[in-house]
């Protein structure tokens, strides 16, 4: 029987419709997002790509076929970006760079400001200097472990090195070539120098993959509705930090090499001045002056200029990027040659000279944080926003936490290594074989137990408040389901989820109290270390017995806790290398922490949004220009933040064809409060005015998402919908014969309201406002077509 070919029907007037789905943290698969095991990759690669169902692969090419589906149901398309953060097992080791990531967040937490250009620049300079101090702290800690504890103290002590065969060739008793202190230090300097080189390599590799992704070029068209002063996220150079990261990488790499060289030079020069050897003394002074000049150059490069967001900055400071690290490495090589010069009378005893440098570094960090707090308060008072956390002090508080993380990790690891090297003895005490790390590091480890006690008290307080809030919600929850028979067990379960979800709004108080306590305890540790710095014992040595006993007990407990934490970090990273589920869990941490570009610290984990946002903008602009259709970008959780950032980057002619649907969105609840200069009230209102079709769905049981508090453009309903019911049914009904789950942050698409709101967005995105595109339209400014009005 011959096949009957159906008569083609003319295309409908409403054009093609597409729903671009963007998932949230943790990632997923295209099959789960599209609800179909048969999917095909439309565009992209193994790292990030756009997928469709196999049957929808060429939906735009057959709009007249009867089986093309109703036009009020858009073709679903999934953008999968989870491999940008959690795809590679080696990225689990980024956990060790957590202080760098937290410091980088500080840059983006600046308060909203109007004017005050110099104040904004000062804020950025202070954050970049603070980030530089963390790099110096990390390399100094590596020098403390490798050069001071191992090569200087343990290798120089026959009791310590006697039972360690791997240190035997460095022992002075054997009289070998490596037995002199300078040569031992030069050999040990390989460890911190290699660490610096590794950080440079990782930063360079990720820089090539992330910061070098070009965003959608800005068009030259003039639009009367386009505001003259664009929010930062809408600027063409916001997601292209190639030049800044390259310059910061060069400066931080040079700072690492200079730190290693300074340890070698100071130790050798101090002995040469005592020994009165004219040639070596002059060489040591020359090296110290060269190191000082190099440090000044590094600081100047870091302070010179920040990000360029108003335009696409394609230039590279090639002289700085190549010359600065190379010069610092050459200076390190010269210092190594100076250190290995024969000094037969040099004997290593006590701690390595320069141990007070840690105190100076911590003092500088404290001064930078105080200055940062003053600048942040000045900015907040100029343009106060009631929704901003801690009255604009969120950035300084998080910076304090970054320094605290670096400090306790440094102190704990140094103390654990010292205990391991000393064997059965105790470093710094009569039975010990080595003097141990600087007193400040032992004091920093002693800060951990009091902080844990504070956190336990805060946790208990929040638990009591949550319990009371849960009891107060009972009547409200039962009133939302008037047709259901009240059930106390069911009510308590729903109330508990809502009360736990509300804890997110108490995070600013928790961070503020923890940061304040950390600042006070850190200052006390610094004062205590300097007051007892000449005492050879552990923390608080030389003080009254009860003070010394308490401090030393806290220090011992703190060093063990840090040692255990460090082991857990390494173990977790190893597990993530083998276990995809654990890798995805770690990826969730980076999904939240690495959304922002590397504006302060080049060794922080890379910003995945510098790949994801250009992907989304190129896809939306290309599809709308080539088809003239309507597009709904649908973002869940962190995906809603990526969706909003991508819509901000669209040219006006494309933005008129795009509707924004967000659900479980942290846009205002988290990003708006913690990053007010970029997602604050005024910024979201601008976005609501530019995106004529925007709808936000949220639940009271959601610990992450919430309302965006935007009125909208005035051409339709408010952006926020009333809170969705969760659970959908209180008890058993004909429609829900089994108990409905409390969904919280997940499965928004399971709610019938989701389809209704998406259809309403498509209806509001009127076809008459979406000009159709000629098939032969030329390309225009990097997009796939040309606007007709």
Automatic annotation (TrEMBL):
Superkingdom of the organism of origin: Bacteria
Name listed for the protein in its UniProt record: Integral membrane protein
Alphabetical keyword list: Membrane, Transmembrane, Transmembrane helix
Matches recorded under InterPro entries: AB_hydrolase_fold (IPR029058)
Keyword match Transmembrane: yes
Transmembrane region(s): 122-142, 185-202, 250-269, 289-307, 319-341, 357-380, 392-414, 447-464, 510-533, 553-573
Keyword match Transmembrane helix: yes
SUPFAM superfamilies hit by this protein: alpha/beta-Hydrolases
Location of region: Disordered: 765-789
């Amino acid at each position: 029987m011959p096949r009957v070919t159906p008569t083609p029907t003319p295309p409908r007037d409403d054009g093609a419709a597409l729903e671009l789905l963007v998932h949230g943290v943790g990632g997923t698969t295209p099959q789960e997002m599209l609800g179909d095991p048969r999917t095909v990759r439309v565009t992209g690669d193994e790292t990030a790509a756009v997928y469709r169902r196999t049957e929808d692969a060429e939906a735009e090419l057959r709009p007249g076929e009867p089986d093309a589906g109703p036009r009020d149901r858009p073709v679903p398309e999934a953008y999968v970006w989870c491999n940008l953060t959690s795809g590679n097992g080696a990225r689990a080791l980024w956990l060790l760079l957590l202080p760098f990531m937290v410091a980088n967040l500080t840059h983006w937490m600046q308060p909203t400001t109007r004017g005050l250009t110099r104040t904004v620049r000062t804020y950025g300079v202070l954050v970049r200097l603070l980030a530089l101090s963390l790099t110096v702290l990390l390399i100094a800690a590596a020098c403390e472990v490798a050069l001071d504890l191992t090569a200087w103290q343990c290798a120089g002590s026959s009791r310590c090195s006697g039972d360690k065969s791997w240190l035997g060739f460095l022992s002075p008793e054997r009289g070998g070539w490596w037995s002199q202190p300078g040569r031992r230090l030069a050999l040990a300097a390989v460890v911190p120098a290699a660490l610096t080189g590794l950080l440079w390599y990782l930063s360079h590799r990720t820089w090539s993959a992330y910061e070098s992704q070009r965003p959608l070029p800005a068009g030259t068209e003039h639009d009367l509705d386009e505001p003259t002063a664009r929010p930062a996220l809408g600027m063409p150079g916001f997601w292209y930090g190639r030049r800044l990261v390259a310059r910061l990488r060069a400066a931080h790499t040079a700072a690492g090499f200079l730190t290693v060289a300074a340890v070698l030079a100071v130790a050798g020069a101090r002995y040469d001045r005592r020994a009165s050897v004219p040639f070596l003394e002059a060489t040591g002074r020359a090296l110290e002056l060269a190191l000082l000049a190099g440090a000044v150059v590094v600081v100047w490069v870091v302070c010179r200029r920040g990000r360029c967001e108003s335009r696409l900055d394609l230039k590279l400071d090639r002289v700085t990027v190549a010359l600065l690290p190379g010069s610092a490495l050459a200076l390190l090589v010269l210092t190594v040659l100076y250190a290995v010069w024969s000094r037969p009378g040099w004997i290593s005893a006590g701690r390595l000279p320069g141990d007070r440098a840690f105190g100076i570094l911590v003092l500088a960090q404290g001064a930078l944080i105080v200055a940062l707090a003053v600048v942040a308060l000045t900015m907040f008072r100029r343009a106060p926003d009631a929704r901003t956390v801690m009255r604009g002090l969120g950035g300084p508080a998080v910076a304090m936490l970054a320094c605290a993380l670096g400090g306790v990790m440094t102190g704990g690891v140094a103390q654990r290594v010292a205990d391991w090297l000393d064997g059965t003895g105790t470093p710094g005490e009569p039975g010990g074989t080595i003097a141990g790390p600087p007193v400040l590091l032992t004091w920093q480890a002693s800060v951990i137990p009091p902080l844990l006690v504070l956190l336990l008290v805060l946790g208990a307080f929040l638990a009591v408040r949550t319990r009371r809030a849960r009891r107060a919600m009972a009547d409200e929850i039962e009133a939302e389901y008037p047709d259901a028979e009240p059930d106390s067990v069911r009510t308590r379960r729903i109330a508990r989820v809502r009360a736990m979800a509300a804890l997110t709004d108490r995070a600013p108080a928790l961070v503020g109290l923890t940061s304040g306590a950390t600042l006070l305890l850190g200052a006390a540790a610094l004062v205590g270390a300097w007051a007892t710095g000449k005492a050879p014992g552990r923390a608080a040595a030389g003080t009254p017995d009860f003070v010394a006993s308490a401090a030393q007990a806290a220090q011992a407990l703190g060093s063990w806790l840090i040692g255990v934490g460090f082991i857990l970090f390494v173990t977790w990273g190893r597990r993530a290398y083998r276990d995809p589920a654990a890798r995805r869990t770690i990826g969730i941490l980076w999904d939240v922490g690495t959304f922002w570009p590397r504006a302060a610290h080049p060794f922080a984990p890379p910003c995945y949004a510098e790949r994801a946002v250009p992907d989304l903008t190129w896809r939306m602009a290309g599809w709308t220009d080539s088809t003239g259709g309507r597009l709904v970008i649908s973002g869940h959780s962190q995906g809603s933040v990526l969706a909003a950032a991508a819509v901000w980057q669209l040219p006006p002619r494309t933005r008129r064809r795009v509707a924004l649907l967000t659900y479980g969105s942290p846009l205002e609840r988290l990003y708006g409060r913690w990053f007010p200069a970029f997602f604050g009230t005024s910024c979201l209102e601008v976005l609501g005015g530019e995106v004529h079709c925007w709808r936000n769905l949220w639940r009271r049981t959601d610990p992450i998402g919430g309302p965006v508090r935007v009125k909208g453009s005035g051409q339709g309903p408010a952006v926020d919908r009333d809170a969705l019911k969760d659970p959908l049914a209180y008890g058993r009904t004909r429609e829900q014969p089994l108990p409905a789950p409390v969904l919280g942050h997940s499965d928004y698409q399971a709610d019938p309201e989701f389809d209704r709101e998406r259809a309403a967005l498509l209806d509001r995105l009127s076809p008459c406002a979406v000009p159709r595109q000629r098939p032969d339209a030329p390309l225009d400014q990097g997009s796939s077509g040309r606007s007709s009005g």
